[in-house]
Design brief:
- With 455 residues, the protein is of the alpha+beta class.
- The protein is built from nine helices and 23 strands.
- The protein has helices at residues 28-36, 122-128, 238-246, 248-273, 288-302, 319-326, 373-382, 393-400, 435-447; strands at 15-22, 47-56, 87-88, 90-92, 101-102, 104-109, 113-121, 132-138, 144-150, 163-173, 178-184, 198-200, 207-213, 218-220, 226-227, 229-235, 276-282, 305-312, 316-317, 334-339, 363-372, 408-409, 429-430.
- The strands form six sheets. A seven-stranded mixed sheet has the order 17-2-1-18-21-20-22, sandwiched between helices. Strands 9-8-11-6-13-14 form a six-stranded antiparallel sheet, with no helix packed on it.
- This is Hexosyltransferase.
- It catalyses: 3-O-(N-acetyl-beta-D-glucosaminyl-(1->4)-alpha-D-mannosyl)-L-threonyl-[protein] + UDP-N-acetyl-alpha-D-galactosamine = 3-O-[beta-D-GalNAc-(1->3)-beta-D-GlcNAc-(1->4)-alpha-D-Man]-L-Thr-[protein] + UDP + H(+).
Length: 455
């Protein structure tokens, strides 16, 4: 079955290149800067460009979200909790039956804490019969934060369901800290069928559980996850947290007023420039895969084009160089700087929590990639079956197109796509720039004979 576009007509000129520039609603200065710099080189029917903006604005202020990358409300509970209250990351299971025990878990903090002790299940020690080390690490840097060895001294009853604790020197961890805590011993891999009665739980929702850690892989945390290890903590700057929570309603009202003001400005900008496509997504980072698909759906219906380029509003682009390359005879379907053998990350902004892979398939640099219209047609035709839970649109493109064995191009006589923000002669683009840096790049570009980084 072939995809039929509304604009497949001899009466409508074919646009050689349509550009989708991913932008956030509030990025007015970035869009203005691009219009005044490299976008001035787009002309006629050869090139069309659109800023791609989500219609939806997250109604939750950033400081009251469980993550700044998404739009989920943080719902802490401080009932019966005070500044000196010692809180644990486990509780007795509330359901019967066996649950697979995990050797550890990863987490992120929605407020600062002070860790006072770490622990391990007494049943793990009873069954191991050898020393077990409990290690807490910074999940992003891999740096060890706390480490302590536990030894079975036969004083723990096999029927006990408690955690064996060890006090540690107080460790202050800041809001946003991502960590992993796990048990390390040769015996751990033999305990897959041990029946533990403690499950991960944090009543305050200050410790947000991310993933269960196993010997061979990680799985997304689920309610009732059973862990061999735990830690205890007190809340850092308790009074500041109480104050923050008491101000949530007024802060939310201020945020909503701000979003309404931004939205009106976006509509005015759209009317004035006619270069904005509003797509049906809430404009947060985790929705980027859906955002690019919605743009592809829009151009598939509204533009008769040969190639589609995706870039961001913090990128400077050598548009003439790109167009010259597209004017040549080529049999590739995909042109970018591709990342090959890139490991799936489990921490930080690019953290994957659902994707069950250790390595991504080849995927393009999100700062610039071009696909043939037939690729857009495929994605539009199959969008309902696409995996939408990866952390970014660039890795999602790699996942979506992995089975097609598309011919890729990375090198060109005209310019090459950048995989980093290093300025190199012959690049098609420079990425991760501020508005003022884009303006400076534009001045240099003109002085250097319309070549990036030439002088």
């Amino acid at each position: 079955m072939y995809h039929i576009r509304a604009y497949d007509s001899d009466n409508v000129p074919t646009t050689q290149l349509v550009i989708g520039i991913i932008s956030a609603q509030e990025n007015f200065i970035q869009r203005k800067t691009l219009r005044e710099t490299w976008l001035t080189l787009a002309s006629g029917v050869e090139v069309k460009y659109y800023f791609v903006i989500g219609k939806g604005f997250c109604p939750i202020p950033l400081e009251y979200r469980s993550s700044y990358l998404s739009c989920e409300r943080w719902k802490p509970c401080l009932e019966g909790v005070f500044g000196e209250t010692i809180l644990d990351t486990t509780r007795l299971k509330i359901t019967d039956g066996f649950s697979k025990p995990f050797k550890g878990f990863s987490f992120i903090l929605s407020h600062g804490i002070i860790i006072s002790r770490i622990g391990i299940s007494s049943r793990v020690l009873n069954n191991c019969k050898q020393p077990v080390r409990v290690i807490l690490e910074n999940a992003i840097s891999g740096q060890r934060v706390i480490s302590s060895t536990f030894i079975d001294d036969s004083s723990y009853s096999k029927e006990q369901e408690e955690i064996v604790w060890k006090n540690v020197a107080p460790i202050h961890l800041h809001i946003g800290f991502e960590g992993t805590i796990y048990a390390s011993s040769d015996c751990i891999s033999t305990l897959a069928n041990i029946n533990l009665k403690t499950e991960l739980y944090d009543k305050t929702k200050i410790v947000l559980f991310l993933q269960n850690i196993d010997d061979n892989n990680t799985t997304e945390y689920y309610e009732g996850s059973v862990s061999m290890v735990a830690f205890s903590y007190t809340i850092s700057d308790y009074s500041a947290l109480k104050m923050k929570l008491s101000e949530e309603e007024s802060e939310s009202n201020s945020w909503l007023a701000y979003t309404e003001e931004v939205w009106l400005k976006v509509l005015e900008e759209k009317h004035d420039f006619n270069d904005i496509v509003l797509v049906d997504v809430v404009d947060v980072y985790r929705n980027l895969p859906k955002k690019i698909i919605e743009f592809y759906k829009w151009i598939s219906t509204n533009v008769n084009f040969e190639y589609a380029l995706k870039t961001d509003d913090d990128v400077f682009l050598d548009l003439p160089g790109v167009v010259r390359e597209l004017s040549k005879d080529a049999d590739w379907k995909w042109w970018s700087c591709f990342r090959i053998g890139w490991p799936v990350r489990r921490a930080g902004k690019w953290r994957e929590t659902v994707l069950n892979r250790t390595v991504y398939p080849p995927f393009p640099s999100g700062a610039g990639y071009i696909v043939h219209s037939s690729v857009v047609d495929f994605l539009v035709d199959h969008y309902k079956n696409l995996f939408m839970d990866a952390q970014g649109e660039d890795v999602s493109m790699g996942i979506w197109l992995d089975d097609l064995n598309l011919k890729r191009s990375e090198h060109s006589d005209e310019c090459n796509w950048a995989c980093s923000n290093t300025c190199e002669v012959g690049n098609c683009n420079i990425m991760e720039l501020t508005a003022s840096e884009i303006q400076l790049a534009w001045e240099n570009y003109k002085e250097c004979g319309f070549k990036i980084c030439k002088c």
